Amino acid sequence: xxxxxxxxxxxxxxxxxxxxxxxxxxxxxxxxxxxxxxxxxxxxxxxxxxxxxxxxxxxxxxxxxxxxxxxxxxxxxxxxxxxxxxxxxxxxxxxxxxxxxxxxxxxxxxxxxxxxxxxxxxxxxxxxxxxxxxxxxxxxxxxxxxxxxxxxxxxxxxxxxxxxxxxxxxxxxxxxxxxxxxxxxxxxxxxxxxxxxxxxxxxxxxxxxxxxxxxxxxxxxxxxxxxxxxxxxxxxxxxxxxxxxxxxxxxxxxxxxxxxxxxxxxxxxxxxxxxxxxxxxxxxxxxxxxxxxxxxxxxxxxxxxxxxxxxxxxxxxxxxxxxxxxxxxxxxxxxxxxxxxxxxxxxxxxxxxxxxxxxxxxxxxxxxxxxxxxxxxxxxxxxxxxxxxxxxxxxxxxxxxxxxxxxxxxxxxxxxxxxxxxxxxxxxxxxxxxxxxxxxxxxxxxxxxxxxxxxxxxxxxxxxxxxxxxxxxxxxxxxxxxxxxxxxxxxxxxxxxxxxxxxxxxxxxxxxxxxxxxxxxxxxxxxxxxxxxxxxxxxxxxxxxxxxxxxxxxxxxxxxxxxxxxxxxxxxxxxxxxxxxxxxxxxxxxxxxxxxxxxxxxxxxxxxxxxxxxxxxxxxxxxxxxxxxxxxxxxxxxxxxxxxxxxxxxxxxxxxxxxxxxxxxxxxxxxxxxxxxxxxxxxxxxxxxxxxxxxxxxxxxxxxxxxxxxxxxxxxxxxxxxxxxxxxxxxxxxxxxxxxxxxxxxxxxxxxxxxxxxxxxxxxxxxxxxxxxxxxxxxxxxxxxxxxxxxxxxxxxxxxxxxxxxxxxxxxxxxxxxxxxxxxxxxxxxxxxxxxxxxxxxxxxxxxxxxxxxxxxxx
Amino acid sequence: xxxxxxxxxxxxxxxxxxxxxxxxxxxxxxxxxxxxxxxxxxxxxxxxxxxxxxxxxxxxxxxxxxxxxxxxxxx
Lengths: 859, 75
Fold this sequence. Notes:
The complex is a heterodimer. By secondary structure, chain A is α+β, with helices and mostly antiparallel strands. In chain A, strands 1, 2, 9, 10 and 11 form a 5-stranded antiparallel beta sheet that branches. Chain A has 28 helices and 13 strands. By secondary structure, chain B is an all-alpha fold. Chain B has one domain. The model of chain B has no long low-confidence stretch (mean pLDDT 90). Classes of the chains: A alpha+beta, B mainly alpha. The interface between A and B is large, with 67 and 42 residues. β13 of chain A pairs antiparallel with β1 of chain B, so a sheet runs across the interface.
């Protein structure tokens, strides 16, 4: 393999490598490679389910540790303890040793138990506390009932013992207070006291009433403060109730009903002295419980605070360790030799680095058996690995959003770095808006580090594209100067090429028109400011911008088409040059290249000076097709002949495009077969040579050159046998080419038309900013006095905010999307295949970056 | 001063700039990036300037307005 330097121009050279690693240092090697992030491992155990793999046990253990760590995090959140986040930019974590991981596992195991038991006792205590609080409320409220009830004893009795009411009434009347208390039990009236949730009170009352047929007297009072339910941790409003009833059975029934309604029944003494003692006791117990509760809480918090310091680091460690074992599970394990065998893709130029890394790990472990890394030949399609840096990353992402370039084809992101922002700027051209955008982009780049931490998603997206924004803004400054637009106003940077011709009896309101100041002076840079605000401004700018769109589109597409030549040459497919690139190019240039030439030629002729009416180019193009050989209006001498020749040339390319490539391929194929070559997978090859090697070579499609017998044995374990041995099928090639031809020819027309969006959007942008100015600033500037000043301030705020929101953000996004489409469709369709698959190496840094779970732990 | 020849002069200038960009791009794996981006930038900017200049070289219509104030009519 030629050691060419990897450039962003095309994918780096990739090699399939095989690693032989001693079992003892497997973990360390994978760790080191993970830090390096240059190898993408292939799964060699595809036929083995996830549970049967060698390191599943370790992964399970780590899963458990991870669960425990997450449990701590949840506990910390509950207790409101802040997590100390890990900043990977500041300090990196060293590769953990096995003992460290074991220690961590043990430690989190014991910590989990501790936290769990603390939690449990906390919950029991909390429950006890709630009960005691309820009891206290019952005692307090029930006391009130009793005091009131004793005043009404006679009435109760009157209602219960109706028969002998008159007799007893007298007796009761003379009774003193202490005797009244005794009389309660004497009357055989019992009571049930308790607490019930307020929303159940109504149902409770109804049930009691129905089951006891009204034989009860119920009293209740609301507890003013909500009580916390320890099981759900939610505050519940509750009521205290005391039910008086007659007879033991009824009381038992009431108790049962209360239980079924999940009311808490508490023991309350009838005697007020006893009740006072009870209250005291309850208060004392409540105090005790609260003390213990506070202590438990403090211990728990102290424990969690200690964990919070290192939780993030642990989480990352465990995540890495899990990734290592998951990778190890992809390796095939030779039990007899205690060797791990791995296969994977890596950039060829980084092989020495990988080799030295392996050597380092070996030396550190002091192992005599070396780790071996072998490059193996394969006809599998390598992954596309396009190196990026801080600047190109955003552009590459734009391209990758469309597709992954085929291995080693021209990286479509290379032209995009300039063409995408430039076409954006053609649509966005306004110096004022561009300067605001430029300052935003420069600010984002200047405060790159602090802004990186912002997690707000929308901003993170803009931040990610900060270099794209920078280039877009720079080009917009340029196009703004060309369009001579700054917030829809013009700048008089140079002398105008026009002067007003003022009639003798001119009065305000009379129309004046311009005259060229000199035949030899033209406005040197951009659009002449005299055009600004004129009545026929749009007439001029539309013609100018439309033609510019066509010319820029033609240039963009021609440039893109040239890449297909570079691709064909790189892949050594001359037929793509002769059968696709050249006829395509001639077709495109004969029609649209000619149009562009005509546009430019028409500009260079002084039609007014010659006194000839200028021909319309659109009509010219239409007549060129509709009636070849005839002219609507003459542009230059010999135009008919040239047009006929070009037209014939263009149409002559269609059959070449259609047939040259398929027939050449068929001829090539037939020639190869005539010489006796066959495809590798074809059955006709099953000969005397080798019966069992057929599997290894045929199915895997790999010649095991450079690897010994055991290598072949290992390779046969591969599962992804999706190798394509393309049988040559003429009809398929033909159909493909017909589609390509039709698509190409039609696209030449539609894509050129599609570039007219450059004109449409720049027109829209300019008109919108002019409207905004005339609706906010213009009336404010013409108003006078203090009121006018205040109006100006308000109008400016509005003007500025709307400029930013509508003209910069909204218009910017729309121009960006249009430019994106021009890159994706109009440009990429000319050369890029997008048949690749991305290189995704095993790397800790990208794993941590992409992990959703670890996001909470990283600062 | 600024007449039809400006197009040619401009072309010469950007060809010179592109050549300079080709040879003075920083060496290293990103050289191709520098060359491609710089030359494309020069060409794009030149194209746009040249188109704008050409469009005004032999104007077919002249500006016309009727809302001019007295003070500005002779500017």
